[in-house]
């Protein structure tokens, strides 16, 4: 082989070696082989994206949010009230006493525990411990002490149902408006289409119907047509016995059992240990002849037993409810 051919062969070999080195460099990307993939000094992912690629959809972030934090749970509606298991309970019966059982007793016991009067667990049984706790509460809060739970005790514990929601207030009648018998209507009385419907199971024939929950009386004629209906202020206590009664006594004017009030046009339908219960006009203080309440307060339980009426309604009741008139109490 002559010198010229040797030089040509040598140059070809150098070229092949150089090409091989270039290929290795391109494959390795020029990176430092001593750096692991998890090393904190590794190249950022953004530098690996070729800026010439324009058909990649960019990642967008909603203003005010962090797209790097995935929600832990499904989205929830936060515009409503937050659900809670701590909703206060209310009694579903009007009174509780020794031996009673059920959810209302449990509700009472839970309230007594929260108030600090009962140290044992709620069992749903009105036992001696519950009665003793009720007596402690009644003594502490200056209520009538008998160990039984009625309206005043339940109100004191916040477990008496909302009474206002059960009272229907009808629009005041026009001045001088009268009922089906021609008697003038009070500001809390109604007659005709505005009259709330009679409660179910309220008897038949000519009668008075008194619904304690709604603090309302209906006067019904022989044909079962409502003549008139009006709001009253009934008893704060559990002494208005439900059932069928009848008017048994009447007085133009009477005196309250404590001697502090005059009760005009008293129509009695129930006897109790301390006196009679009946319908009458707004009571008047004996000391200064002022009324105990206003017509606007009718529909609220304010009396000790009787049903207080606006004077115009008392006038009607006095004429309508003669001795023997049925009184249905619900």
Automatic annotation (TrEMBL):
Entry's Pfam families? PG_binding_1, YkuD
- UniProt cross-references to InterPro entries, sorted A to Z: LD_TPept_cat_dom (IPR005490), Peptidoglycan-bd-like (IPR002477), PGBD-like_sf (IPR036365), PGBDSf (IPR036366), Transpep_catalytic_dom (IPR038063)
Q: Where is the composition biased (Low complexity)?
A: 31-55
Q: In which pathway does it act?
A: Cell wall biogenesis; peptidoglycan biosynthesis
Taxonomy, top ranks, is: unclassified sequences, metagenomes, ecological metagenomes
Q: Which GO terms describe its molecular function?
A: transferase activity
All residue ranges annotated as the L,D-TPase catalytic domain in the record = 208-329
UniProt-annotated stretches for the region Disordered: 31-86
What residue intervals traverse the membrane? none
Q: What is this protein called?
A: Unannotated protein
Name the Gene Ontology biological process terms: cell wall organization; peptidoglycan biosynthetic process; regulation of cell shape
Record-annotated Peptidoglycan binding-like domain positions: 101-154
Task: Alphabetically list the UniProt keywords.
Answer: Cell shape, Cell wall biogenesis/degradation, Peptidoglycan synthesis, Transferase
């Amino acid at each position: 082989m002559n010198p010229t051919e040797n030089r040509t062969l040598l140059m070809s070999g150098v070229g092949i070696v150089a090409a091989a080195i270039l290929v290795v460099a391109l494959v390795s990307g020029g990176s430092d082989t001593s750096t692991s993939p998890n090393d904190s000094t590794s190249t950022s992912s953004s530098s690996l994206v070729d800026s010439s690629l324009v058909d990649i959809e960019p990642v967008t972030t909603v203003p005010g949010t962090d797209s790097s934090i995935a929600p832990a749970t499904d989205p929830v509606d936060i515009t409503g009230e937050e659900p809670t298991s701590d909703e206060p309970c209310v009694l579903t019966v009007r009174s509780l006493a020794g031996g009673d059982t059920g959810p209302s007793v449990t509700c009472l016991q839970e309230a007594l525990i929260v108030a600090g009067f009962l140290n044992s667990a709620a069992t749903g049984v009105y036992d001696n411990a519950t009665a003793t706790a009720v007596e402690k509460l009644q003594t502490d809060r200056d209520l009538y002490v008998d160990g039984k739970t009625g309206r005043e005790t339940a109100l004191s514990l916040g477990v008496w149902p909302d009474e206002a929601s059960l009272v229907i207030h009808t629009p005041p009648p026009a001045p001088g408006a009268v009922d089906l018998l021609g008697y003038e209507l009070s500001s809390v009385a109604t007659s005709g289409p505005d009259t709330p419907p009679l409660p179910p199971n309220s008897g038949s024939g000519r009668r008075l119907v008194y619904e304690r929950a709604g603090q309302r009386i209906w006067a019904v004629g022989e044909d079962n047509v409502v003549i008139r209906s009006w709001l009253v202020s009934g008893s704060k206590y559990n002494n208005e016995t439900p059932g069928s009664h009848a008017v048994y006594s009447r007085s133009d004017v009477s005196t309250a059992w404590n001697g502090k009030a005059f009760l005009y046009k008293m129509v009695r339908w129930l006897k109790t240990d301390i006196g009679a219960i009946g319908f009458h006009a707004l009571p008047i203080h004996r000391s200064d002849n002022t009324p105990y309440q206003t017509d606007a307060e009718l529909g609220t339980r304010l009396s000790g037993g009787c049903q207080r009426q606006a004077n115009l309604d008392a006038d009607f009741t006095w004429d309508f409810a003669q001795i023997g008139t049925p009184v249905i109490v619900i």
